[in-house]
Write a structure and sequence with these properties.
CATH topology of the largest domain: Rossmann fold
Largest sheet: 7 strands, parallel
Strand order of the largest sheet: 7-11-6-1-4-5-12
Number of helices: 9
Number of domains: 2
Structural class: alpha/beta
CATH superfamily of the largest domain: HUPs
CATH class of the largest domain: Alpha Beta
Distance between the termini: 68 Å
Amino acid sequence: MSCSLWPPVNKEEYKGVWVYLERGGDRLKDVGLELLGKARDLAQKLGGAEVGGVIVAGAEEMAREAIYHGADKVVIIDNPDLKIYTPAEYAEAIAKVVGRYKPEIFLIGATKRGRELAAYIANTLTTGITADCTALEIDPKTRDLLQIRPTFGGTQLATIRTPQRRPQMASVRPGVFPKPPRDTNRTGQIIIEKVEITKRRTRLVSIEKRLEKDVADLPPVESADVVVAGGRGLGSAEGFKLLIDLAKLLGGTVGASLMAVRAGWAPHTRQVGQTGKTIRPRLYIAVGISGAIQHLMGIMEARTIIAINPDPHAPIMENADYAVVGDYKQILPLLIEEIKRLKS
């Protein structure tokens, strides 16, 4: 049943699978490129539909990068008022482009800004959105997007669809889907759209909290090959100093469990798990993490898991490739010393 307050939608007018490509400085964030790979998969299941991308205030080099990763068409929204991110203005501009090109599906990376922006866009387009999906499929009979996400604390999966509205919108956290290979032989269309937005007397600007000084130079957890993560078992924020030393030696980064973030020992941007970041590193070292189901869901794609915990029966120990029973305060200094010796 559709909402009587919303204008009717002719679903036949909507074709293609499009992705919002979020900028991170002078490059595209990986999550947008990851979603282009999934968009191509969905497009093939829809009979070879077009794959598109939307960049706000970006450069043509970014658009070409999107094409190399699977886009057929990329729209760059050009407006000098959009150089600084503001959710209402960005949503208005993106909604105008989406309304003009009418994609059947519109995907957004569930970054901090992406989560905020997705709700604004869905509201502007009077459509639904499913947040933090872990899988996306197509119903071949109806062309509905099957938006799959965990529920009830991760114990069950819910399949959600938007049968009456278009576009169908879903957000996906970084690292859920693999980034497709870069193919510089791919060609596509780059369109510059000059989009006017409403002049507002006040503007809501998102201000992102700076990372603590000691982790500011480390890469994000979703893009690192090696992640050393700490949990409540560290006992305090001081425990992260050893993890940072180990991560830097291994050329990796530092992550944290939900409980460590709640305790204020690490910022939310470092959180690994269902309510944080889904990661797929080559090596994941869990220190003082018990291994709740929501955390395990975020590391299930890790190639190798090493767990260090004093409790041999902790869930993380059963899910690790290598389980070390003991006090991390004794184990990590020895491990750091040995790695330094081998490197020298």
